Amino acid sequence: GAVVSQHPSRVICKSGTSVKIECRSLDFQATTMFWYRQFPKKSLMLMATSNEGSKATYEQGVEKDKFLINHASLTLSTLTVTSAHPEDSSFYICSATGGAGYEQYFGPGTRLTVT
Amino acid sequence: GNSVTQMEGPVTLSEEAFLTINCTYTATGYPSLFWYVQYPGEGLQLLLKATKADDKGSNKGFEATYRKETTSFHLEKGSVQVSDSAVYFCALSVSGGGADGLTFGKGTHLIIQP
Question: How far apart are the first and last CA of chain B?
Fold first, then answer.
């Protein structure tokens, strides 16, 4: 199957700083990428949908100014957590797809810890 | 809104036991239904899917049937192996999976003991 990578796999940052997470489709062109957040013992919650070259669409309750998403190419999307706080600590997972009707392929996730 | 409810674990079974993980859903329209599996340290992988009522998805000995009348998509396997130990997620999509994000259940941690 297709491969999606995320970098970094783990990151620790201080409160008030920003951190960027990259999501790459390694062997296919991803017209759409999704960002999810997973809390302990909770399901994955969709944060936003990004289409290449367009602004991301955020789910209700997700602060677009805090979670900046850029999908500048067909193989790369980035999620920047700005002015991070301890409550932003979580497991962030991206997925990528070639479009409607195609399977979503998931990255391995990034563990963010804000101290 | 859409939602998925699945049994929470951990579920611990002996090798060769029969497995059932229950999943029910609430959705507008006619969603597609999925089971994903997450092995330790890896990303979610699609295990099987069904796109319409009475469809049966199957893969690697796992099966699930889309039951519209009971809004369910229970995962079954006749004889589990230690290598099946993982976290299993039930999910739905109203667009078929590629155009919109998925709605997930909380995941069921399955532990198979030799």
Answer: 41
Q: How many angstroms separate the CA atoms of A22 and B68, rounded? A: 38
Contact B48/A at CB under 8 A: no
- Please report which helix (H) or strand (E) contains residue B105, including its range: none
Contact B97 A4 (CB under 8 A): no
Q: Do B44 and A100 touch (CB under 8 A)?
A: no
Query: Do A69 and A92 touch, CB atoms closer than 8 A?
Result: no
Interface contact flag, B43 A34, Cβ < 8 Å:
no
- The per-residue DSSP string of A4-41 comes to EEEE-SEEEE-TT--EEEEEEESSS--SEEEEEEE-TT
Give the tens place of pLDDT for each residue, B18-53.
Answer: 999 999 999 988 899 999 999 987 889 999 999 999
pLDDT tens, chain A, 115 aa long: 689 999 999 999 999 999 999 999 998 899 899 999 998 777 899 999 998 888 899 999 999 999 999 988 999 999 999 999 999 999 999 999 887 667 889 999 999 999 9
Q: Which two tokens stand for residue A111?
A: 């563990």
For residue A63, what are the contacts with CB-CB under 8 A and spacing of at least 6? Answer: none
Which residue, among B61, B68, B51, has the nearest Cα to B18 in the 3D structure? B61
Which residues of chain A neighbour B102 with C-beta distances below 8 Å? 34, 44, 46, 95, 104
